[in-house]
Amino acid sequence: xxxxxxxxxSWDSIGxxxxxxxxxxxEANERVTEDARELARADERAKAFAAGVExxxxxxxxxxxxxxxxxxxxxxxxxxxxxxxxxxxVDLLTTATWVAAKSLDTMAVGRLFRMLPHKTEPGRCYATIxxxxxxEKGIKQSRCSKLRAGWEIGEVLLARGYNVPEGQVREIVPVxxxxxxxxxxxxxxxxxxxxxxxxxxxxQLREVVxxxxxxxxxxxxxxxxxxxxxxxxxxxxxxxxxxxxxxxIPSAVRxxxxxxxxxxxxxxxxxxxxxxxVLLYLLQAFTDETDNRVYDVVLERMKxxxxx
Length: 308
What we know:
By secondary structure, the protein is mainly α. It is 62% helix and 0% strand.
């Protein structure tokens, strides 16, 4: 029998919710939906904040790897971006030595500084990374070179959990140059095993490097811990090196110095000028970071001697 709808018929009479209950449920569902949307928005804001923090964080992984100069003209957009990141890295030198060191090397290899106007000589750009580092950042040429030579070691040691200073890295750079990066890390691990990471010093590293045999043969693709184990026996059997001796100055050179000192005294209208005074001025000129003429002459003469 077909049921008729009349004034007494309601959802309650057929087992359905009343109008009031339905409205409450709809309102509750809307609150749940809005709460879910707010949680989603909060999650998006949290992710955006985390992404912003990550983008602002500076680290070695944010510094571009060194690549060769791309053009002979102005910087390409890619080079501009690398330069921007490298300059920011160098600014962190006091707190992130190896970030700055890698930045200097990347700038040097790609000559990213080549279009930067010289601060004190308008009309020209920087000629070398050493010049830029000294004029712009106060980093001496010698330190710039040492930082560039050591950043790969510093990066690996940092990744291995060691807070290693410049002085320690400097002692194992010769091992890297002769036998590869992993060999240098192996030397560090060897000393860590002997004295502990908290007690390791630059002097201890220097002593171990001096004990390494001249005919040392290592595979740079070996794990540093394996290399450290291989080095242990060689170091234990090695004889302590003899203290270095100062090379004697040939008598002919001493005579020439005295002769030139007399000529110098004549030009200065002075009496006899001691050889040590001449040597002092010579060494000061050799170490002058702003004038490389004496340094370059010594370098060239040493190159010529090594070829003989």
